[in-house]
Inverse folding.
C-alpha cells in the first residue's frame, strides 16, 4: 500500500522545520510589536538569508554523502575577490567575469574533490587545508586591500528589486508550472493504477500553494518588489532539489552517505560522484561569493569568514545528519532562513552581538537534540 | 531434585502494535545449560532484555524470581549485581585495548584511583588459563585475536563480575567449527563449576550437543520445552515453525547446461602480508547450475568470489571468461554491467543501505534502467520493485518501509531482489542463509531452486555443510586458497565426511 503523502518537494522533517520557523516569526512579531512582520523587514530577512542558503545548498549535498567542506567560506571570499579584481582592476565585461569566476569555483571544487575521492584524504582535512589556502590566496591577490565599488550589473544582481509586474508574472508562471506538474504526476500515476490523493485533497493542496505564492509576491511587491538575489536562490533551490530527489545522481548521493560499502557493491562509482558533488559545492561557493561582493559593493579580505560554519549549521538545523544519507536541500534552505530570522529578529530588538551568537549556538544544539530525542522515541515506539 | 535458579513468570511485553512476549514463563535450573530456540522475531531477544534488566521492571508485566526470591531490575547494573551477565551476538570489546583492560573494563582493580596492573594481569592469567587461552597474554591487543578467542574474552569479562548466570546470544554465529568445539568444552567446564547458562542459537545441532533443557518460543509465546533427551531435532523444528518441514532442500528438476562462466588460474594476494589468499584456482559454472563452494574459515571462499565480482582489496591475477569471451572485471560496476551479481555474506554492511527504504534499496544497483531523460521514472521503478516483492514473497508493510525494519530473512530477500531487477546471468550468493531463521531459509532455498530452473547460474558459498550438500549440483572445496576437491552432487549423494576430509587438507 502506498502511503498518500503530500508531495511538495519537502519531507516530513522539513514540515516540522517550517512549523518551527513560523513559531520563531510569531514570537519575534509579538516581541517587536509588529515591526518584524512588515514587508520591508521580510524583504530584508530573505535577502540576508540568500548567502547562507546558497552555501547550504552546496553543503547539504556534501554532508549527505558523509563528507564535510570547511573551505566554502574562504572559497566564497576568494571568488568574491576574484570577480572584484576582474571588474574594478581589469574592467572586464561583467558577464564574462562572472562566467570565469564560476569556472574557477568549479575548478577549486575539483581540487577538493580530487583529494577526497582519489587520494583518499579525509574531507575534513582537505577542506581545512582549503580554508587556509584559499584565504591566503585571497589576501595575496588583493594585497590585503578592499576592492570596490563594483559596476552597475553587480549592484543590480546584488541589491535591486524586480519591477512589480515582473514579480507578478513570475508568480503566475510558477503557479502555472506547479499546476502542470501536479496534473502530470496525477495522470501518470492513474495510468499505472497507483493510488493518488483524493481529488478534493489535491485541490486543497493546490489552493494552499497558490495562496502561499500569491502572499509572497504581494508582500514583496508592497515593499519594493522581489529582490533579484532571492530569484537566484529560488532557481538554485529548484535545480538542486530536483537533482537530489529526482535524478540517478541524486539517489547515488543518498546511497553513498547511507552506506558507502553497500553503495560500492551496488556498482555505484563513488569517486566520480564524490568529485562531482565537490565541484557543485565549489560552484555554489562561487555563486555565493559573487552575490556577497555584489551586495556589499566591494570585496574585502575578511569576506565570508566562518560562513562555512553557518552553512553547516543551516544544514543541521534543517534536519541533515552529519553521518550522511539523511537530509534535503529544502531542509537546508529552511535552516538558513531560520538562522537569518534569528539574526534579523534579534537585531531589530537591539540584542547585543554576543547574545545573538549565544542564542544561535543554543538553537543549533537544541534543534539537534530535538531530532535525536524524537528519533529515540520513535525507535522505542516502533520496535 | 530440581533446583530452580532463575524463573520468569507470565512475562508479557507490549510494543505499540505488537505483543512481543505473551505470558511467557521459563524455569532455569541451576548448573544447567538451558537452550532458548525460536525463529527470528519469536521474542528471544526481548525475553533476554527483560531478564537482564535492559527493559526496566514495570515496562513489562510478570515477575522474575532469582533463587526463589522476587527481583525487580531497573537497569542492567541491577541484573549484573545479581550475577546475570549477557554476552551479546555483537562483541563489545575494544580492539585497541589489551586483553586485561578489556576483561576488567569498568571493574578495574585500583588503589585510590590508580590501576593496579600487576593484580589485574595476575587475575587475567587465572581466567585465561581457565578458558584454555594459554597462548594469550593479558597485554595482547584484542584486535590481534581471532573472533573465537574474542568471544572467550567476552566470557572472561562476564565471569570476573562473579556472574553465575551467563546468557549467550548466538555465540557461535561467527565461529569456525574448531572454535565452536572449544566453546562447547568451556561451557561444559563452567557448568561443572556451577555456572548456569542460557544459550540462544539457531543451530539445532549445537543445541542438542550441549543443552540440558530446551525451551522453544514462537510468536512471543513459549510453545514447549523439555529435557533435551526427550526431544528430537524434528520436534524442535516443528515447534519453532509451527509446521513440519519435511523437505528442507527442494530438488531442482533441470540439468545444468553449457558452461557460462569460466575462471582460469585465479590468484589473489593480500597487499599487506603478500600472502596468497587465493592460489591458482580454476573453476567453471554451467547455465542453470548451483555450484557450491565450501571451505573452513580462512580458506579464501569469500575472497575468491569477491574478487571475481571485482570488489577490493588485494592484487589479483588470472582470467575470467563469460560465455566464452574474456572479460576484465575491475569493479562491482563492471561485474554488474556484464550480468554477474553478488549477494554478500554481510548484508548489513555490504548489501543494504539503512537510511533507505525497501524500494530504494531494491533499485539502487540498476537505477539507470529506470532513467527517463534526466530523472528516475519512479512509476516504473515502483512497478518493477513491487513485482519482485510479490515474486520473492518479501513481507514488508510497504515499499516505503525502512529496510532494517524487516526481519533478517526478508532483508536477505531484498538483497537478492536488488540483483534480479535486471537481467543477470550469474548470481554469487555468499552465505545466503546466515542469521536467518528456519522458515526463511527454506524460502531462500526454494527461491534458489526456482531461479536456477529459470536458467540463472548460481555460485553458493557456504560454511554450512547441510546446505552445501542439499542444494549444490556440484561442490568445490577450498583449502588454504586452493581447490582441494570437486564433487558431482547431482544425485545429492556426497557425504559430509568426503567434504570435510578435503576441507581440512587431508587426502581424499
Amino acid at each position: 500500500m502506498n502511503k498518500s503523502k503530500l508531495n511538495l518537494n519537502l519531507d516530513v522533517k522539513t514540515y516540522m522545520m517550517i512549523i518551527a520557523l513560523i513559531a520563531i516569526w510569531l514570537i519575534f512579531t509579538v516581541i517587536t510589536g509588529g515591526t518584524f512582520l512588515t514587508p520591508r523587514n521580510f524583504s530584508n530577512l530573505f535577502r540576508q538569508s540568500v548567502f547562507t542558503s546558497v552555501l547550504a545548498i552546496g553543503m547539504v549535498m556534501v554532508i549527505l554523502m558523509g563528507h564535510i567542506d570547511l573551505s566554502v567560506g574562504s572559497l566564497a571570499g576568494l571568488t568574491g575577490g576574484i570577480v572584484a579584481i576582474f571588474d574594478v582592476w581589469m574592467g572586464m565585461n561583467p558577464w564574462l567575469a562572472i562566467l570565469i569566476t564560476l569556472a574557477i569555483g568549479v575548478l577549486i571544487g575539483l581540487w577538493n574533490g580530487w583529494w577526497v575521492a582519489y587520494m583518499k584524504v579525509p574531507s575534513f582535512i582537505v577542506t581545512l587545508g582549503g580554508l587556509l589556502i584559499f584565504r591566503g590566496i585571497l589576501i595575496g591577490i588583493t594585497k590585503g586591500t578592499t576592492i570596490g565599488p563594483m559596476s552597475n550589473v553587480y549592484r543590480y544582481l546584488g541589491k535591486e528589486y524586480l519591477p512589480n509586474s515582473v514579480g507578478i508574472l513570475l508568480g503566475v508562471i510558477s503557479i502555472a508550472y506547479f499546476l502542470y506538474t501536479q496534473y502530470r504526476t496525477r495522470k501518470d500515476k492513474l495510468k499505472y493504477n497507483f493510488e493518488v490523493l483524493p481529488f478534493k485533497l489535491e485541490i486543497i493542496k493546490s489552493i494552499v500553494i497558490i495562496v502561499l505564492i500569491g502572499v509572497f509576491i504581494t508582500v514583496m511587491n508592497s515593499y519594493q518588489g522581489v529582490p533579484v538575489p532571492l530569484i537566484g536562490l529560488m532557481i538554485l533551490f529548484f535545480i538542486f532539489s530536483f537533482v537530489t530527489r529526482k535524478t540517478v545522481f541524486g539517489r547515488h548521493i543518498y546511497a553513498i552517505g547511507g552506506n558507502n560499502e553497500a553503495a560500492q557493491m551496488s556498482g555505484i562509482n563513488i569517486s566520480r560522484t564524490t568529485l562531482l558533488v565537490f565541484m557543485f559545492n565549489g560552484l555554489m561557493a562561487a555563486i555565493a561569493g559573487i552575490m556577497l561582493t555584489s551586495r556589499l559593493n566591494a570585496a574585502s579580505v575578511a569576506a565570508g569568514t566562518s560562513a562555512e560554519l553557518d552553512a553547516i549549521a543551516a544544514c543541521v538545523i534543517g534536519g541533515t545528519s552529519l553521518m550522511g544519507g539523511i537530509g534535503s536541500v529544502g531542509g537546508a534552505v529552511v535552516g538558513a532562513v531560520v538562522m537569518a530570522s534569528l539574526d534579523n529578529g534579534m537585531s531589530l530588538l537591539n540584542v547585543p552581538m554576543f547574545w545573538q551568537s549565544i542564542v544561535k549556538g543554543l538553537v543549533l544544539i537544541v534543534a539537534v537534540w530535538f531530532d535525536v530525542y524524537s528519533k529515540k522515541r520513535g525507535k522505542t515506539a516502533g520496535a | 531434585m530440581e533446583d530452580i535458579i532463575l524463573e520468569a513468570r507470565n512475562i508479557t511485553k507490549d510494543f505499540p502494535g505488537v505483543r512481543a512476549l505473551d505470558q511467557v514463563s521459563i524455569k532455569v535450573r541451576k548448573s544447567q545449560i538451558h537452550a532458548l530456540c525460536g525463529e527470528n522475531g519469536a521474542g528471544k531477544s526481548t525475553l533476554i532484555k527483560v531478564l537482564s534488566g535492559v527493559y526496566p521492571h514495570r515496562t513489562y508485566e510478570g515477575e522474575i524470581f532469582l533463587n526463589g526470591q522476587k527481583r525487580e531490575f531497573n537497569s542492567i547494573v541491577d541484573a549484573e549485581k545479581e550475577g546475570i551477565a549477557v554476552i551479546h551476538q555483537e562483541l563489545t570489546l575494544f580492539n585497541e585495548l589489551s586483553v586485561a583492560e578489556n576483561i576488567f573494563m569498568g571493574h578495574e582493580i585500583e588503589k585510590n584511583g590508580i590501576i593496579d596492573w600487576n593484580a589485574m594481569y595476575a587475575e587475567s592469567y587465572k581466567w585465561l588459563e581457565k578458558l584454555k587461552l594459554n597462548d594469550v597474554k593479558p597485554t595482547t591487543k584484542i584486535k590481534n585475536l581471532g573472533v573465537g578467542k574474542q568471544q572467550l574474552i567476552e566470557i572472561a569479562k562476564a565471569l570476573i563480575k562473579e556472574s553465575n548466570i551467563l546468557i549467550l546470544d548466538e555465540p557461535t554465529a561467527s565461529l569456525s567449527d574448531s572454535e565452536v568445539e572449544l566453546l562447547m568444552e568451556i561451557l561444559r567446564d563452567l557448568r561443572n563449576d556451577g555456572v548456569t547458562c542460557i544459550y540462544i542459537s539457531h543451530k539445532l545441532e549445537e543445541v542438542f550437543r550441549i543443552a540440558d533443557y530446551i525451551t522453544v518460543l514462537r510468536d512471543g509465546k513459549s510453545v514447549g520445552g523439555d529435557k533435551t533427551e526427550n526431544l528430537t531435532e524434528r520436534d524442535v523444528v516443528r515447534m519453532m515453525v509451527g509446521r513440519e518441514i519435511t523437505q528442507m532442500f527442494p530438488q531442482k528438476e533441470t540439468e545444468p547446461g553449457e558452461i557460462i562462466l569460466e575462471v582460469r588460474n585465479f590468484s589473489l594476494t593480500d597487499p599487506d602480508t603478500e600472502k596468497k589468499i587465493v592460489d591458482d584456482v580454476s573453476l567453471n559454472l554451467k547455465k542453470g547450475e548451483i555450484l557450491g563452494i565450501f571451505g573452513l574459515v580462512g580458506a579464501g571462499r569469500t575472497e575468491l568470489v569477491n574478487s571475481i565480482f571485482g570488489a577490493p582489496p588485494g592484487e589479483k591475477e588470472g582470467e575470467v571468461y563469460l560465455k566464452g569471451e574474456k572479460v576484465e572485471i575491475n569493479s562491482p560496476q563492471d561485474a554488474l554491467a556484464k550480468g554477474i551479481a553478488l549477494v554478500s555474506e554481510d548484508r548489513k554492511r555490504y548489501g543494504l543501505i539503512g537510511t533507505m527504504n525497501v524500494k530504494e534499496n531494491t533499485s539502487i544497483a540498476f537505477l539507470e534502467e529506470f532513467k527517463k531523460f534526466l530523472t528516475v521514472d519512479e512509476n516504473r521503478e515502483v512497478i518493477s520493485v513491487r513485482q519482485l516483492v510479490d515474486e520473492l514473497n518479501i513481507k514488508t508493510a510497504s515499499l516505503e518501509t525502512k529496510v532494517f525494519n524487516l526481519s533478517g530473512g526478508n532483508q536477505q530477500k531484498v538483497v537478492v531482489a536488488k540483483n534480479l531487477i535486471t537481467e543477470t546471468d550469474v548470481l554469487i550468493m555468499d552465505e545466503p542463509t546466515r542469521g536467518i531463521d528456519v522458515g526463511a531459509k527454506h524460502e531462500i532455498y526454494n527461491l534458489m531452486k526456482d531461479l536456477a530452473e529459470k536458467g540463472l547460474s548460481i555460485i553458493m558459498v557456504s560454511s554450512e555443510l547441510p546446505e552445501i550438500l542439499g542444494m549444490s549440483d556440484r561442490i568445490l572445496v577450498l583449502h588454504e586458497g586452493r581447490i582441494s576437491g570437486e564433487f558431482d552432487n547431482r544425485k545429492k549423494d556426497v557425504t559430509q565426511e568426503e567434504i570435510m576430509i578435503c576441507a581440512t587438507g587431508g587426502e581424499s
Observations:
- Chain B has a mean pLDDT of 87.
- The longest strand of chain B covers residues 4-15.
- Chain B has 17 helices and 24 strands.
